[in-house]
Here is the input.
Amino acid sequence: MDGRDVNPIPARPDEAQVPKVGVDSWVATHEGRVHRHPVLAAFDRVPRPAFYLGFAIAAALLPAVTSDGYIIRVGFDTLLYMLLALGLNIVVGYAGLLDLGYVAFYGFGAYGYAMLASPKFGLHWDTLGVIPVVVVASAILGFLVALPSRRLLGDYLAIVTLFFGQLFVTIYQNGNRISFLGITRGYDVTGGPNGIPNIDNWDLGGLKIASVTGYYYAALVVFALVLGCVYLVDQSRTGRAWKSLREDPLAAEMMGMPVNRLKLIAFAAGAAIAGLTGTLFAALNTAVFSADFDVPTLIIVYAMLILGGAGSLGGVIIGAVVVNVSLEVLRTPDHATWIFYVLILATLLVKLRPWRVLAVVLGGTIGLGYAFHAIMDAVWPRSTGGASTVGGWLGRALDSWNLHPSTPQTIASVAFVFLILAVLVLTVTHGWVRWLAMIPTLYLAAFVWDNRLVVEPSITRLILIGVILIVLMNARPQGLLGTSRVEIV
Amino acid sequence: MNWNLFVTELVAGITHGAVYALIALGYSMVYGILKLLNFAHGDVYMVGAFIGYGLITVFGGATALSINIALLLVLMFVCAMLGGGLLGVMIERFAYRRLRTAPRIAPLITALGVSFFLENAAQLILGAQFQSYNSFSWKNGELWTKGFTLPGQVHVGIAQVIVVVGAIVLMVALTLFVQRTQTGKAMRATSFDREAAAMMGIDVDRVIVVTFFLGSALAGAAGVFNGIAYQQVWPYMGFQAGLFAFIAAVVGGIGNLPGSVLGGLVIGLAESFATGYLSSTFQEAIVFAILIAVLIVRPSGLLGRAAVQKV
Here is the structure.
């Protein structure tokens, strides 16, 4: 090279618009390059608060649409889960800390309200007095729990908080004979396995709340207030600091952020929201038991947060609604069967392209079912002796397509193990092998669902929650509404 | 001082500690290599315990064994270790492998999901009730009536001897493997610096698979040991045991194998003395206090070295 540029690089036509210094232009324009469906892109242009307002109005209209106490109760539970997920979102979604003792603060709030407003100790404090006390106490507790692990890696925090949550459940469960080092007599503090019954209703300065609908509105108002606060914090200096901490703690510290203090604030804020939610829970249920604050609740809240997309407020709302409503729907076998087949069909229709593949998989599954049913009916009549749990034409169709053994428990449990293996095999195959392997897998899934999972809804929901966590983390870690990370290498 | 109570709790603590130590070893190995807190490890232990239970049932149940008791024990260990190891490898392959480069929180949440899935799937398949190894009645109680007597009239059953000796044998075997073999050397190198190990031509994927297999096989064996010593198996047994074992690994110094054994003994003894001298409800509080104390005073664990973070 003699120093002369033979082919000078032409000036970029858009040079005037490109940021010159300080911003990695590739990252800055990443959003623009991501292909968005036009409908979704239109949604993106609507300001976020408008969505929240729309949701609040829709939620407020629910009791006007239906007077069914059960539906309103489900709505109330969903609002509670939203509040919980909102608090967890601060700790996990913003600050990136794994808090596995989160429901202990929820329980702390519920028990705190129960102790201060029930005949247990003869205390009947004013609700407007109890709530600030409980919220502040929860925040302090959260601060104390995070304190010993603040300097350590995230994993230690996870284990300390998980163990703290377990410890709390044990304390609540055995709190009916607490004595000081075995010297004094045992005092009954938490009611032990009997919990604390007869808890007072909320009484907001004369405004007594006694009905489910009343609590629904109370929860909605609390949710709106908390959501507003979290939204403002999200936009603030602290919110940005939390997110920088999540993305890269080391870089955040280099930039002069008080990393430890930010972690503790996030923890305390999450705990305070959980405590507040606990008071609502205790007041509506009028009794608290330790089992409500154990690991399953924790995992359900995590599933909501992950499904919606950690760090996204809209995602929290959607995640809580989707998870809680679908878990409720699974309770009745009839609905569970419908949901299963509709979802499978919809997924196949959307995901399987080109249409030839779709036709082969769908036709193959249906054909396989009828053929297999006919063979088994002839060879071993007991394997078709039972009936589908769902009525109507779907039930009749399933009865001649799917096997319903008269005593399905053992065989369906074995089939469940094979189903897991078959699904795992599907994840490592490609192309036509995968499409063909899908046919027996789908049939197996239908068999297991009809014969085993539908009849054990309480276990099925927990299994599904586990599956949601594993699949989402592997396939779409940003959840439904979260934005995927842009890695700068 | 009640000498009898002290020795009884000591023996119980060592037995329990041996089981915790075996589980803690697997936690520690996986953590050392992947920096991943494998919450599902406790559930591998549960599956191992159920494999042992299944074999007892197949061979006629503890009261009417159709084969030699020693043969059955060997068979139980081999099957539980193989089954546990394969399960561990499968979990790694299908749940964790894609997340190696993801933010740290992603594999942790996946691990929670795997643990939750395994527990509830086991409940769906096997039922929620407790099952019993019934080891007290094996060959008219041979496993418990035979044995020897310690000072203070404390009887030590042969079952407890099997647990402690078996655990020691497995630990020695693991140490020899890690220290003496080529693969063990590769494991240590990977644990020290994964990228550098990969650049030196070590097949990191293979090392990780071997690590998961060994760790999970130890957990499967621990499940059978626990069944022999304490009889009961049920789908949720892995959660608490896994938690205690992880704390044992942290207390001993995570990533440090002798540390895990020491930590397991500390946690087992603390738990057993808490049960003996205070009340069984205090065991969690005592273990929690130990964990917090270690984290504050010596965050790298009793035998661990302080990690120097490179920037």
Summary: The CA atoms of residues 343 and 349 of chain A lie 10 Å apart. The beta strands of chain A are 117-118, 123-124, 203-204, 207-208.
